[in-house]
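Narrative summary of target 7.
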Amino acid sequence: QVQLVESGGGLVQAGGSLRLSCAASRTGFRIGVMGWYRQAPGNQRELVATITSAGSTNYADSAKGRFTISRENAENTVNLQLSTLKPEDTAVYYCNAQTYYPVRSNYWGRGTQVTVSS
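Modeled conformation, tokenized:
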């Protein structure tokens, strides 16, 4: 099992910034892709950004130019810098990790709330 613990959410005014962090427990699992997803009330969970162990990134269109994902492989952590936040960014943000050894599996954190006021 891989446990993911998110931190860094909160309340911020529109135009502000937040930094989300996610730490994966060190359990002997090897993690490939890590990423962030979000879910707003009444909506499905959606991709925000992902990053491979080699550092290749992928962003949702809504995140391009405003959010930056980064990763520290040695620490099994992934961060998401949120900038120029908008009220529509309000959601619960979830950390995700995909393992490839010794098993291929998908893990989620419990989520951290980000609220952007207008």
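Residues 71 and 78 are 4 Å apart (CA to CA).
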